Amino acid sequence: MSYDVLQYAEDYTVRTDEVEIVLGEPMRYHTNFRIGGSAELFVSPYSEDALAIGLEMCRKREIPYTVIGRGSNLLVSDRGIRGVVFDLSTLTGYRFDGNTVFALAGTTLAALAGKAAERGLSGLEFAAGIPGSLGGAVFMNAGAYGGEMKDIVESARVMDEAGRIRTLSAEELELSYRHSKLEETGEILLSAVLRLKSGDRAEIERTMQELAEKRRDKQPLNYPSAGSTFKRPAGHFAGKLIEEAGLKGFSVGGAQVSEKHAGFVINKGGATAADVMALCREVQARVKENSGVDLELEVRLVGEW
Ligand SMILES: Cc1cc2nc3c(=O)[nH]c(=O)nc-3n(C[C@H](O)[C@H](O)[C@H](O)COP(=O)(O)OP(=O)(O)OC[C@H]3O[C@@H](n4cnc5c(N)ncnc54)[C@H](O)[C@@H]3O)c2cc1C
């Protein structure tokens, strides 16, 4: 298999058994925010080998690349993304073995949490409502309602830009609040092993339902967003600080600070990445002025800014 298949591209899409490549794919189709210009080359590998070959192509031709999972924590610029976007949401699958589960990077947290519950395995309840992939969740050390990936990750297989694969222990991943070592090394998560605990299926499912209700009550789930826009500053809640600065409902273009939960910036319709960024900068400035606290973006900025 080789990306030389590109020379046969007729309608800007090439599909083989191992990879799908689309030229000029609009990123709004691949982000929860429904925002973003086009990726020059949008590559969905169906195997680790296809990913390794794609990385080799990038290295040899000095093409920049970006990795995405389910796009639920991304703000892609209106100018799009230069080079290759590797879409890892295509690498899905899992295998339970006793209290552990091995899963591929693109598997959704929702699927893993649901399957774990069916088996009476506890530990993933917190993750059921996080709309991301395992890869994105480990990269971000995603967490909610007192749980985080750090509590359950046992190890992860990762690939570097030369296609070399190694296994990292939980300690080596250095998971901390919305951060992992992968942010520094640039390695791509291929799969991970999660350690769960045996529990009571009915109780696990009840907890998941309660957390889902809390989300529906508190979060603007009927609008596109990237979840919490800002990280939680030590000793504070971002949403509360934004509300106290009088910014609930504040909007720039199609982007708005949610009236339901001020910690979420939502796309009310037709928002551009520039709208969201202008809104975020204004929120940061006014919160700083009002409370002296610096808000840092949790949402990851991707593309040409
Ligand atoms: C409605 C809503 C609710 C949310 N609630 C929560 C919440 O409760 N808690 C929480 O923590 N987050 C929450 N989020 C944010 C988001 O879902 C998480 O950060 C999630 O883990 C991102 O996963 P993803 O697959 O979508 O990653 P993406 O958004 O695609 O990518 C996020 C980052 O991870 C990197 N990445 C993705 N896959 C890989 C990989 N395989 N290898 C290496 N790097 C990779 C990307 O390069 C990028 O930097 C919410 C988002 C929404 C829209």
By DSSP (H or I, 4+ residues per run), the number of helices equals 8
Bound molecules: flavin-adenine dinucleotide
CATH architecture of the largest domain: 2-Layer Sandwich
CATH topology of the largest domain: Uridine Diphospho-n-acetylenolpyruvylglucosamine Reductase, domain 3
Give the CA-based shape: globular
Strand content: 25-35%
Describe the secondary structure blueprint for this structure:
Blueprint lengths: L12 E3 L3 E8 L11 E8 L2 H13 L4 E4 L5 E3 L4 E7 L6 E4 L2 E5 L4 H10 L2 E2 L11 H7 L2 E2 L2 E2 L4 E7 L5 E5 H4 L8 H4 L2 E8 L1 E2 L2 H18 L6 E4 L9 H7 L6 E2 L2 E3 L6 E4 L5 H19 L8 E3 L3
Parallel strand pairs: 3-6, 4-6, 5-20
Antiparallel strand pairs: 1-2, 2-3, 7-8, 8-14, 9-15, 10-11, 12-13, 12-14, 16-19, 17-18, 18-19
The structure holds flavin-adenine dinucleotide.
For this entry, give a set of tags.
single chain; 305 residues; alpha+beta; Uridine Diphospho-n-acetylenolpyruvylglucosamine Reductase, domain 2; Uridine Diphospho-n-acetylenolpyruvylglucosamine Reductase, domain 3; Uridine Diphospho-n-acetylenolpyruvylglucosamine Reductase, domain 1; 3 domains; 5-stranded mixed sheet; 5-stranded antiparallel sheet; 8 helices; 28% strand; binds flavin-adenine dinucleotide
How would you characterize the overall build of this protein?
The protein has 305 residues and is an alpha+beta fold. It folds into three domains: 3-90, Uridine Diphospho-n-acetylenolpyruvylglucosamine Reductase, domain 2; 94-203, Uridine Diphospho-n-acetylenolpyruvylglucosamine Reductase, domain 3, CATH 3.30.465.10; 220-302, UDP-N-acetylenolpyruvoylglucosamine reductase, C-terminal domain (Uridine Diphospho-n-acetylenolpyruvylglucosamine Reductase, domain 1, Alpha-Beta Complex), CATH 3.90.78. 27% of the residues lie in helices and 28% in strands. The chain has eight helices and 20 strands. It has helices spanning 48-60, 109-118, 134-140, 170-173, 182-185, 201-218, 238-244, 273-291, and strands at residues 13-15, 19-26, 38-45, 65-68, 74-76, 81-87, 94-97, 100-104, 121-122, 143-144, 147-148, 153-159, 165-169, 188-195, 197-198, 225-228, 251-252, 255-257, 264-267, 300-302. It has a five-stranded mixed sheet. Strands 7-8-14-12-13 form a five-stranded antiparallel sheet. Strand 7 (94-97) and strand 8 form a beta hairpin. The radius of gyration is 20 Å and the shape is globular. The two termini are 34 Å apart. The structure holds flavin-adenine dinucleotide.
